[in-house]
Write a structure and sequence with these properties.
This protein is of the alpha/beta class. The chain is built from 14 helices and ten strands. α6 (122-141) crosses α8 and α6 (122-141) crosses α14.
Length: 378
């Protein structure tokens, strides 16, 4: 008896064969140009065949990793997978990121800061702030200014969208105790954390995005304007100012969508419009442009990328007191590769900025290193 063909099975085989052919030809010839995935990742490199690696299985392991990272249409399959996880299950593959209520995105560290999960203790903070006060006074004697800046993390700005029962509040927060000792030791500082909390309900434009981790581009412009005014006051100088005549309202663009871009979705999620000032700089004619060094976490990165040559001289950003920008845009350079103290003392102003999420390591060694220098070297 003649066996009856199964049309469903035939269709499936034709589909899988076609898919395999498309994948293989795309892998070999890259005949469709695809945009690379966003975010930081390292693709495996192709390994050269040797009999030694073959018999030790090194070749097979590395070749398997290479093929997994380079198979045809990998970017599209990754995007489809991420889109399904986000749309159907409110899950993300991006490291250290969680989905809150109404799809607000958070990094875990900013949630921990809200609940005091990362609290480092009264003594640790008191000791650091004692040293910071001493360092600030030592800089002042040299006619230099150390400006301490407390920034506001997204978890603190949008606590209402943090998932329920994420953590239990059992400790004071680092921020609360930092504030206690900042007041006790009379440390000069700018508290943007308190300022933007108070401004939240009154602000004309959104201060923090739904799908980004940092303060908004609009908020960065406000911060930059305030920093200029503060530097003018403490140094008794007149600097060029920033200003804007117009503000464009648009769907979030970088950096206001930095997390959603890193999620590598097929369809960028829609959000409320964000504000984008047409930022301009006054002429520096007849004005003073101080030499400024900023030691900070990623919240300063967006401000630095605005381009501050019109305001500051020889401006550098030391990311976590480790990576030196703008040098790192072209060739990696770290603070341990330069004469640390010589670079510090080239500046009139040092900005030390951290969010509530990075307060456990605030200063990232700068405070302790400068305290030891001033007390042992001078």
């Amino acid at each position: 008896m003649k066996r009856k063909k199964n049309p469903t099975l035939i269709t499936l085989l034709v589909f899988l064969t076609t898919l395999f052919v498309f994948q293989f030809t795309q892998y070999q010839f890259k005949w469709i140009k695809l945009n690379p995935l966003n975010g930081y990742y390292l693709d495996a490199t192709k390994i050269k065949f040797t009999w030694k690696d073959w018999f030790s299985t090194t070749y097979q392991e590395k070749q398997d990793k290479y093929l997994n990272d380079h198979f045809g249409f990998r970017t599209s399959f990754v995007q489809i997978n991420h889109q399904l996880r986000f749309s159907l299950f409110n899950k993300v593959k991006t490291a250290w990121v969680t989905v809150g209520k109404e799809n607000y995105l958070y990094e875990f560290n900013y949630i921990k800061a809200v609940y005091g999960v990362d609290f480092i203790g009264y003594d640790s903070i008191a000791t650091r702030m004692q040293k910071l006060k001493s360092v600030q006074e030592s800089f002042r004697k040299l006619d230099k200014n150390l400006i301490v800046v407390l920034a506001l993390g997204k978890g603190s700005f949008y606590p209402e969208y943090i998932p329920d029962n994420y953590y239990e509040r059992s400790e004071p927060t680092n921020l609360e105790i930092y504030r206690k000792y900042i007041a006790e030791y009379d440390i000069e500082h700018i508290d943007f954390h308190r300022y933007f909390i108070n401004l939240k309900e009154k602000a004309q434009y959104p201060l923090y995005p739904q799908y980004g981790i940092h303060w908004s581009h609009y908020t960065m412009c406000l911060v930059l304007d305030s920093l200029v005014n503060y530097i003018e006051k403490v140094r008794n100088i007149e600097m060029p100012h920033v200003y804007w005549d117009t503000i464009i309202m648009a769907q979030p663009r970088y950096p206001d969508n930095d997390i959603s871009k890193a999620m590598n979705l097929l369809f960028p999620p829609k959000s409320f419009p964000m504000a984008y000032p047409d930022l301009k700089f006054e002429s520096s004619a007849g004005k003073t442009k101080p030499a400024v060094l900023s030691i900070a976490d990623s919240f300063y990165g967006g401000i630095f990328e605005i381009g501050l040559d019109s305001l500051f001289t020889n401006h550098q950003f030391w990311y976590y007191n480790r990576d030196i920008y703008p040098n790192c845009k072209y060739k990696w350079l770290c603070t341990y590769e330069v004469n640390y103290f010589e670079e510090i003392f080239k500046n009139d102003v040092i900005i030390l900025l951290g969010t509530d999420a990075t307060l456990p390591e605030f200063g990232w060694g700068f405070i302790e290193k400068m305290y030891d220098y001033f007390n042992n070297e001078l």
